[in-house]
Design a protein that fits this description.
Length: 350
């Protein structure tokens, strides 16, 4: 905890600092995007009608890094292992950001991106940020993977962690198709992660998701429709990696991440299966995402973004206040059936 200050003061200061840095750095990222010619042209899955800089990841990462750095310097965790994990989150997010910025300049193919995603996932595991244990939702018992499968346990742990990190990065990247969608959903998820950590007594760990929430909220005025800047691959990779690793740092936050990000995760899974059935590569850009289909039936960008925000908040709150792992599993099942039913209906209609 924070023995020399009220418990609410450090997260408030970190949030405001990250928010102000993002708000200040966003106009600079716009100018850098024009200067470096990091521009998104109309077409493909993008819905805008003129070239817009895709350099917003600069502001997003700078704000998160500054807020996290302030937290680690002023209120460092007392447990050295926690410091190692938080540094792995921060260092990995920086690597993800730098590779994403390179991709924004070069527009690389899918495979270099996958390799980079796997590499930053291994950075997380090197910092002991990995999915080693989970709670059985039916029995309530803690399952430790290396004890469950002694000879293959750590290999399974690393494989699951890499899959989770890569999946979250691609979910955020695909979610970033409408103005303000990915940044707003990321902000909601970060707030819920912070609340969850505080409820578990992990006040120092909660400061990093608090910094991420401030960064996303400060970036939103420039990214909300009509957007003046996009977060680009640099922002999407950094945001996806950070959400993935922060969701691992406390027990039961994987369930929170699955519920708060359940809609985009299910959308990604649906698209992969449907493109595979059509014999189309899952990596190619397209307008078959849920938010694109909602546009086609007449909803506006702001209405769709507000709907995503609402669903993420409702199910995220259910994850945080849910009385048991079984309740969260049932909530996830309800969300899955509802989203997949809507996707099936929209696929026939559009």
């Amino acid at each position: 905890m924070f023995p020399q200050s009220p418990v609410w003061l450090p997260p408030l200061l970190i949030f405001l600092f990250s928010f102000i840095v993002a708000l200040t750095a966003a106009p600079l990222s716009v100018r850098l995007g024009h200067y470096w010619k990091l521009m998104d042209r109309p077409g493909g899955r993008r819905m805008h009608k003129e070239a817009i800089p895709r350099s917003g990841g600069i502001a997003l990462f700078l704000a998160f890094a500054c807020g996290s750095g302030m937290a680690l310097m002023l209120w460092p965790p007392t447990n050295p292992e926690d410091m190692r994990r938080l540094l792995a989150v921060l260092v990995g997010s920086g690597i993800a950001f730098l590779f994403g910025l390179w991709d924004d300049q070069r527009e690389l193919s899918a495979w270099p991106q996958f390799i980079a995603q796997a590499a930053v996932a291994l950075v997380a595991t090197a910092g002991t940020v990995f999915i080693e244990r989970f709670t059985n939702p039916w029995t309530g018992q803690l399952v430790i993977i290396p004890d469950l499968v002694p000879h293959l346990g750590w290999g399974i742990v690393i494989a699951i962690t890499v899959f989770w990190v890569m999946g979250m990065i691609n979910t955020v990247n695909w979610l970033d198709g409408l103005d303000g969608l990915a940044a707003g959903v990321g902000c909601i998820a970060a707030v819920l992660f912070a609340i969850h950590s505080f409820r578990l007594g992990q006040a120092e760990i909660a400061l990093l998701p608090t910094a991420l929430a401030g960064a996303c909220l400060g970036f939103l005025p420039f990214n909300f429709h009509p957007a003046r800047v996009f977060m680009g691959t640099s922002g999407a990779m950094m945001l996806g990696y950070t959400l993935a690793t922060l969701s691992i740092l406390a027990p039961a936050r994987i369930a929170t991440a699955l519920l708060v990000l359940g809609v985009p995760i299910l959308d990604v899974a649906w698209i992969i299966v449907q493109r595979w059935r059509r014999g189309v590569s899952a990596t190619q850009p397209g307008r078959d995402h849920l938010h694109h289909r909602l546009l086609e039936i007449g909803l506006t960008q702001r209405q769709i973004v507000a709907l995503y925000y609402l669903l993420c908040m409702i199910f995220g709150v259910m994850a945080v206040v849910g009385p048991s792992p079984r309740f969260k599993l049932i909530a996830l099942g309800v969300l899955s059936v509802g989203v997949l039913s809507v996707l099936a209906w929209l696929s026939r209609k559009t």
